[in-house]
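Teaching assistant's notes for section 4

Start the section by putting this record on the projector. Ask students to predict, before seeing the second block, whether Heterokaryon incompatibility domain-containing protein will look compact or extended. Collect guesses on the board.
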Amino acid sequence: MLESICDACRAIDFEKVLKVPASEFTVHREVRNPYDTYPDLLLDKDIDRLSQLQDTDCSLCKILASTLCSTEDEWSDPGIVEDALLSPHKLKAFSFLRNCAWTSEDVQGAQDCYMLLAPRSSTYSSGGGYSKWAWRGEAGYVACLPKKREAGLFVPQIISESFDSIKARSWLRHCKRSHGAACNEYSKTIPGLEVIDCETLRIVPAEAGMQWVALSYVWGPHQSQVNHGDTEPGSLPSDLPRTIRDTIEVTKALGYRYLWIDRYCINQEDAAKKHDLISKMDIKYRGADLTIAAAAGHDENFGLPGVGNTTRKKQAIVELNSCTILSTGPDPASETENSRWRSRGWTFQEGLLSRRRLIFTEHQSWFECCEGGWMEALGGPELLNNPDEARCTSGKIGRSLDGRLLSYHLTSTPLMADPNDRVIASRLDQFAHIVGKYSQRDLTFDTDSLNAFAGVSRHLRDSHPQLSHIFGIPYMVPSNAPLALGSAEKYMFYFLSWIHNRGAPPRKRLDFPSWTWAGWAGGMGWMTGRLDGVTALEQKMRNIHFEVDDHLVLPEAYFDTFDSISCQIPESDVILCFEAQVVPPSLFSWDTYEERREISPSYDSIDGQSQKDEEIPDGENQSDNDIPDEEDQGDNDPSEGESEMSSESPPPDPNDWDTWAVGNNRLWDRAQPPDCDPATFIDNLEKGRWDCLLLGDYNGNAGYSHRRFMLVIEWLDDGLAHRVGSVVLNRQHYLDRGNIFFDDTELAWKSVRLI
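Reveal the predicted structure now:
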């Protein structure tokens, strides 16, 4: 091994790191100076040679290249970034506990070691207690360890070539013994549920008190039907896909006997029973004692890495005379985030609803529950005599994907004095975050837009306070959550005012109404990342109700127990009716007031909230609804400090929606504008083919976030219309001219029937 190391790497004195006690690296920053740097030890003052690493035989160069740190994060000051880019990457040793998102100093028995990082500067982010490099993504974590060492809690380890069932059992045992109701209380039974007996490989009826494991995986492009009318009723096919075979082995290795897999445990030929079971996905996955997620490969033929004949990708390890340089491999949560399993619509609720998830990536397995997360590459609760010792006093251990979305409750704000409204706003805000993440997923069939969400819908309807929905638009059941007079319609306005996220134009799903997010493919959201309650909503639209083709008004009670799968009314037949004011094309203008472009409308500096989606699960910068960072949103050149109207700047483009305003304000840069150029849009308004309708305003974040939503519709025959997009205005009252968006008191009203 030493023969393959280059001279530059040989010159690095790793031995001096091991001479410093790890405890000296684990210190808290001074309270009076939150920007104070963490202790570090310089190993190489310039390793920029690794940033242009080509083909090399040096094994240490390859592993050290993954320690290079980006200078920028979402909180970076442009001036600091520019200065840092002029300095080289410096290889340093830091506290592993302090710089790994999977560890915590607050856990009894936690042991520190040395992490290798190569930043350009020593400036750290002030948020979260970790350095800004704590989330290493695909780079993973590189540690410098002594040759003679003992395993310890949170200390990096060599990942075995085979799945470590002993570790996985310890994760399960720790969760069951140490965690609360979110992980352990669930007692619902499902009439007609069938499971696979992993000992006999037969499908058997589930019995009361039975524990089962569920599998979440990606189906292949061509699925053969399982013949439930075989001469051997209840038997599995002999040619099982590799992922299915591997899952059966893991189930038995963990001490379970029964396994639920949708393809084999739902009779695909019995449509009525199939629909009933699909609508109860929440019970199957939340009721499972564990869900195994196959996040490696593209379909069920890939297998579970480390099980059977499915191999894992090799871990990077370099053995030196004085120490071991070891990489944990890609952060397993980030690797999962980028997997095909994570991109599919049906797997969203399977992962979200499960209380415990054992996830297989191409490098290792990792565990996530409602209160913790562990991975094979780090020492875990298997090293402790008492599992209770692995409790974190300051929050959740480890990374999480969606672990807290179902348990998230909005912190009350001064705008929400009504306790009942706090509860209702919290539940509706939870729904908004869940739908925002779900909308990022892909579906093979557009008709599954609500079917693949039915388990989540059922879970929210069975929780307190009850939340139903009207083809995807949330609806609070009045008998369960009494609303103040007018609140129901205000919340209806807000959730009808959904937006397409800025980026690729969305695609219409033909089987759904245009007024619901479920009728469109593509990421979406609402006017804010946090709903501040009914007092933040200023409704402009009125007389909101739903009809079917014969003008029959659907009563609100119809939606109290709405189920998209068993619904007898075709989605396309439900008409949204309301009255709204028409925004004339004369209010639209090409805004050449360029100084305003230097201020990003995606950041409200007064309340300190980035308009990136608030990190609900764990404070991670991993939101599926993230938008491009500030440096991608304008043409500013902070290094020169020149006006945008300088001779070097391109002239404003009238075809760019970002240069247009309505009244006093420009369009919000998070919301996708209509899918046409501004000139075509204005022409459609002037000729009456389209209308721009004012639905209402959002005034939240203690009064510092102001947005106005306008719905763009196209008129059809018979007085009907459909949605074609939206225009959302953003006003920063301390910067933008004018105290109102525009005067709407004299705008004409129209009745709208939207399909």
